[in-house]
Amino acid sequence: MKQIHTIPALRAFRKQASHPIAFVPTMGALHIGHAALLDHARKLVGNRGTVIVSIFVNPTQFGPNEDYLKYPRTPDEDLALCRQHHADAAFLPDVASIYEPDASTYVEETSLSAGFCGASRPGHFRGVATVVVKLFNLIQPDFAIFGEKDWQQLTIIRRVVRDLFLPIRIEAVPTVREPDGLACSSRNRYLSPSERAAAPAIYKALSETAALAANGETSTAILRNHLLNLLNAIPNASTDYAEIADEQTLQVPDHILRPARALVAVRFPSARLIDNFPILPPQSHSRHSSP
Ligand code: AMP
Q1: Topology annotation, domain 2-173
Q2: Cα first-last separation, the chain
Q3: Per-residue pLDDT band at 285 (split at 50, 70, 90)
Q4: Distance from the CA of 138 to the center of ligand 1, in angstroms?
Q5: pLDDT at 249 > cutoff 70
Q6: What are the extents of the domains in the chain?
Q7: Mean pLDDT, residues 28-56 taken together
Q8: Is 124 among the catalytic positions?
């Protein structure tokens, strides 16, 4: 696997890389969720195609009081995981290569970014969209792979790609979880032992809410209250947001008539965790369960 640190070296690699090219953007501190993205990338392009992973802690997606400086950086372990999962190249640029000191151009999606994490973290999705488009322009992949773990991010990237006519197919990989249901996240390592013990209750709350919908409840107000009550009972945690939204538009309907997602952010003293789960309308449950 080639390690690439500069833009000229990336351009040179890109020029001779065999197609199709699949790209997996990450911020490092890689775990089995990222590994699933790399495996999906390899499956898409086959052994003759090229898988490029980027490892870049993007400063513009962190707010001034967020964890940019203390975000975990584990480059040696990350490179080993990328090698094990058959990436062809890992791109690890420094901040100065991605952002000129007087950079003044940003990509901003203005609708899907407004709520949820966009409301809690102003400027976050502008930073995400900007770095993703920069990386897309440098790598010019045929496919880019994102995790469903960051559902709002996924919908925003799809919208940016559509609106800006970027010739890239976005592929989504389902959330990879720990055996107890906690969604794998680089930030899980911030959790104290007691927070880690409490955190799987997020998944439990989401799946119980999905079960209520599966049993016929369609009112988003009732579903949301149920979810909120379960989350609010988690010791030592506060709910940043908990909503049931249309899976594509992220609008909150009165009733679940189309596939929706429960979207949550829960703040422990040591880490803010996000998760989401499908909430399906009753007819799709019966469609799935009948032969
Ligand atoms: P990050 O390094 O946290 O910026 O994430 C890089 C990519 O990995 C994003 O597309 C995430 O959605 C995805 N990802 C992170 N955690 C998981 C997970 N548990 N399951 C699936 N994908 C994930």
Answers
A1: Rossmann fold (3.40.50)
A2: 46
A3: low
A4: 21
A5: yes
A6: 2-173, 186-279
A7: 98
A8: no
pLDDT of residue 287 exceeding 70, the answer is no
Q: Spell out the residues 6+ positions from residue 87 whose beta carbon is closer than 8 angstroms to its own.
A: 1, 24, 38, 41, 51, 52, 53
Smallest Cα–Cα separation from 195: which of 73, 187, 148? 187
Spatial distance between the Cα atoms of 45 and 185, rounded to a whole number of angstroms: 26
0.85 exceeded by pTM: yes
CA of 149 to the centre of ligand 1 (A): 6
Which residue in 19, 31, 34, 285 is the catalytic one? 34
| Topology classification of domain 186-279 | Pantoate--beta-alanine Ligase; Chain: A,domain 2 (3.30.1300)
pLDDT band at residue 289 using 50, 70 and 90 as cut-offs:
very low
Laid out side by side, the sheet with 89-91 consists of 2-4, 89-91, 50-55, 21-26, 143-147, 169-173
